[in-house]
């Protein structure tokens, strides 16, 4: 059984064993018996981390699940936004959100005479299997 962290309002943090099915339920404080909620502890390494590194890690984590699609149109829009912001500092124009139509990015498989498949890709360095 895993050990979970709980916090009593009067006596602070304590640890207790609980099954995974009971992980969301409160646990009785060993000192006063009051039901205490489970808390999720943040590792001290995260708290002591430089803010720039923490932001970079958060950005990388977001990109892992929601990658930014680079297309000629999006690169053109980004370069225009950079040029606009460089030319007009303090301009109150809001950022434009690029939301590509993902159906246009789907690739079709090409079947060769020997039965193998080839995927024409926007990423020629990737090896198909």
UniProtKB/TrEMBL annotation:
Coiled-coil boundaries: none
Region (Disordered): 58-95
Top-rank lineage group of the source organism: Bacteria
Putative regulatory protein FmdB zinc ribbon domain residues: 1-41
NCBIfam families tied to this protein: CxxC_CxxC_SSSS
Protein name listed in UniProt: Putative FmdB family regulatory protein
Species the sequence originates in: Zhongshania antarctica
Taxonomic placement: Bacteria, Pseudomonadati, Pseudomonadota, Gammaproteobacteria, Cellvibrionales
């Amino acid at each position: 059984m895993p050990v979970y962290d709980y916090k009593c309002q009067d006596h602070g943090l304590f640890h207790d064993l609980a099954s995974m099915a009971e992980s969301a339920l409160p646990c009785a404080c060993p000192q006063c018996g009051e039901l205490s909620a489970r808390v999720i502890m943040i590792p001290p390494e995260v708290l002591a981390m430089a803010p720039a590194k923490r932001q970079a890690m958060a950005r990388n984590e977001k990109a892992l699940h929601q990658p930014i699609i680079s297309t000629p149109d999006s690169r053109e829009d980004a370069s225009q936004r950079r040029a606009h912001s460089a030319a007009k500092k303090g301009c109150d124009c809001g950022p434009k959100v690029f939301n590509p139509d993902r159906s246009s990015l789907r690739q079709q498989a090409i079947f060769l005479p020997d039965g193998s498949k080839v995927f024409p890709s926007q990423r020629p360095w990737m090896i198909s299997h």
